[in-house]
Amino acid sequence: MKAYHPIKSIHRIILLLCGIALLAVIFLPIWRIELDAAQYPEGLALHIYSYKLDGQVEIINGLNHYIGMKTLHADDFVEFTVLPYIIGIYALTFIVVGLLARRKWMYILLGAFLLFGIVAMVDFWFWEYDYGHNLSDDAPIKVPGMAYQPPLIGYKQLLNFGAYSIPDIGGWIVFTCGVLLLYCAYREWRLSTNRG
Predict the structure, then answer these.
(1) What are residue 167's phi and psi, to 5 degrees?
(2) What is the pLDDT of residues 62-85, one digit of tens each?
């Protein structure tokens, strides 16, 4: 029978801390889209939480009206009803895996967390695509062939606006937790192969 070797204490502590940090992500902005233009020298920002939109949403909606983009309303996104629960489940799973200290469950958590990250980014891209391409025919400003999809990440020029799409504090926490989980899984895998 194969001997059971619990994961190292340092890795258990990392998983527990990541679980607590992910609980905080529910209440922190995860992503931000910033708009810069000459007429808005202070810039405009849209903060995306797990359950709401914040920032200068109404000003951005007013500007988007001119180019035919749909207005942004949290009620239009099913993601805001399920994302806090998904993040909460992952947070509790990090904590449970840290307490159980089972290598197999840590590997499963790593796979599930990577899948969550990929699905979240693909969903975000489709959301941006829909808002940037499905424009109203009644828009006051029409530029043939122009789409207004913000970048998934990084910078893009949209008419006279520069659009920046970057993780906010919650997004950086999620990314850091993923990197730490990958580190723990790798170190545990190395330990298990050295024992074999």
Answers:
(1) -65, 145
(2) 888 888 888 888 888 999 999 999
